[in-house]
Every structure is written in structure tokens, then in C-alpha cells.
Amino acid sequence: MNLRQNIRVAIDSVRSNLLRAILTITIIAFGIMSLVGILTSIDAAIFSLNDNLSSLGANSFSIEPKGDGVSGNRGGRRAKEGDPISYKQAMNYKKKFDFPAKITVSVQGTRLATIRFKEEETNPNIPLLGIDENYLDIKGFDLEEGRNFSITELENGVHKAIIGSDIVKTLFSNNAEFAIDKIIAVGNVKYKVIGVLASKGSGMGGNEDRLVFAPLLNVKRYYGGAKKNYDIVTAVINEEEMEAAVASAIGLFRNVRNLKVIEENDFEISQSDSLVAIIRENTTNLRWSAVGIGLITLLGAAIGLMNIMLVSVTERTREIGICKALGATRKNILIQFLTEATVICQMGGFVGVILGILAGNLVTFALGGTFLVPWDWIFVGITTCLFVGLVSGLYPALKASRLDPIESLRYE
To answer: What is the signed CA dihedral for 157, 158, 162, 168, rounded to 10 degrees?
Structure first.
């Protein structure tokens, strides 16, 4: 028999033992679903993480004070963290950095602001940030309504604000257009709303729809202090010049910090793409764990399939004897039973792949991503099913092919 005939016989066999076949197909399907679903979820999480970190842009880097405390001893001396980046240092860097790039300076005012409009108010957990004209662009924020701060407004530190979409839902019944030009209170300070941010969802740093932005000088006026740290992000125009830009930034910032030649840098350069690369590398073990979970489930399915095939061989002993009497060779019988085991496995694999894609994309949607078709993991699932089918069906197929035709015809 050719392959098509073998597949037809296999399907007929599945139909004749439908309940038993469905149970086996279900076990295989759940094994493939766990394999494809978990791996798809991991990919979705990485893509979401990549998007969140890349809100800085793959061509961006930030400058931060070195360390966050006493890190140990070096030759009997204690290495301390770098001093916070002051407003003067940040602005000097922004003014003097002559590399083709955009620079934004921002500062955290408070993370615990309560925003009020008339009788409505938010929970006391809204972050207030002071930003400049480049912040929204470099950080990847879009405006649903209104506009960005003008240079004049930034230079004068006026009482105007840009608010997130969640705040609009709470204070203005989700009417972004209505929110423009309204006066809100951030703590005890009043601001006029000039812009509403488009929704971005939750990221690593928290919910980016629950933010209030005000001019940098305004936030500095109310929340500034000697130990206040100002955040610097540089977005290079040409991504290929990133290394040169980082080297130039390090040299300039050493001068801004008045570091001597013999002194080490008391600041660090952080790049979003390097963080993503580290996280991707660390997810390798997670992927292998997911593969292990799927293979454990498939091991149970493989045992169940082998048992079914052995039972099938016993039930069809007379049929095998008749086939051999009519001229079927051991190879024909072997291929027929291997094909049957493979067909059952592929049926389970097909169902499992569909369920795995749906399960994995539930995580994708929860993270705010778009529908993801994991072609790599689909191929892995189908290939795994083929392997399981061949391994599980090999012993029963060999047993069937070795049956004596005369004894098989006598079998009751």
C-alpha cells in the first residue's frame, strides 16, 4: 500500500475505536498545548518587555549615578555610590553634548500625589514628573488630545500639566477632549491641563497611564533638593553611532562632574537593548523548563498511545494474518501501524498547537500585545508529535510485523 492508503486505513482504525482514540488524542493535545502555550507566553513576555524598555528606543542610553549604596571594599577603601546628578550638571550636559542626538532631562517629583477635579479625586498613588520638551518623544508617549509644553512654558515653569488616560477616566469620565483646559489639583498645587496621553498600559515601571507631567522647573521648585537626582536620557540620531555617542557622553559627563584623571567614573551608562539581551539570555532556562513540562505530559501520552497500539495489534491479529496471506510483507505491516500511530499523534498535535496558540496569546493580550503566531514553536510541536508517534508505534508495529500468518489466521 502507498502512503495515502496507509493514512486512510489509519483513519478508519481511529473511527472504529473512537473513544479510545479521542482520549489519547486529548492527552497528546494537552502535552503540545503546554509546550506551545508556555513558549508562546515567554515570547510574548519578552516582546512586551522589549517594547517597554524600548520606550527609550534601541538607540538611547541613560546616565545614572553609580550604584545605590556601599558596594564593598577596594584595597581597604569603601567604594561608595555616586552623588545624585544635580539640575546644574544635567543641564550642562544637555547644553554641551554636541553629538547628533536628542537629550531629555526629567525629575521625579513624587510618587504619591492625589489628583483632584471638583468632587472627584484619584487614589494617592499618582507619580508626578518634571519633564522637558524632548521627554515625550524620546520615551515614546503619544498625545490623544492637546499638546506638549512650549519652550516658554518650560523656561518659566508654569502651572500646566499633561495627564495620563487613567486619570482622565477617573476625573473626567473618560472624556479626553473635555479634560483640556480644566484646572486640577496635584496635592495642594493647581495645574491647567493642556494635554492627555494616549494609553500605553502597564510596563516594568508601573502603569504608564497613571502619570502627571509638569514642566521641569515647576517640579524642581516644589520638590527639588540638594540630594534630588535628575534623569538624563540621550537618543542618538544614527543608531550605528551608538558606541561613539556613549564614549563622547562619558568624556563630557566626567568633565561635568569635575572628575580627575585618576578617578573612576561615579556614574553609569545604561542601554535598553543591552538589558533586553540579558533578559533574553536568562529566559533560556525558563524555555527549557517549559520544554520539560511539555515532554513529561507527552511521555504519558506516548505510553498511552503505545498501549492502544498494542491492544490494536491484538484485536486485529486475524486481519494481519489475512493481509500476510494475501501477500503483505513485514515491511507493509510495519509501515501501516507506524502510520496509524503517527496519524493519531498528529491529530493530537494539531489540536494542541491551536490550544497552545490561544493559551499563549491570552498572556499576549494581558500584556497589551498583538496576536502572536509562534511559527517556531508550531514547528517544534509538530516535529515532537512526529517523533512521539514513531517511538510509541515502533514496538507495536514490530510486534505486528513479526506475527506468524498461520497462527494469526487461527486467532480467535
So the answer is: 140
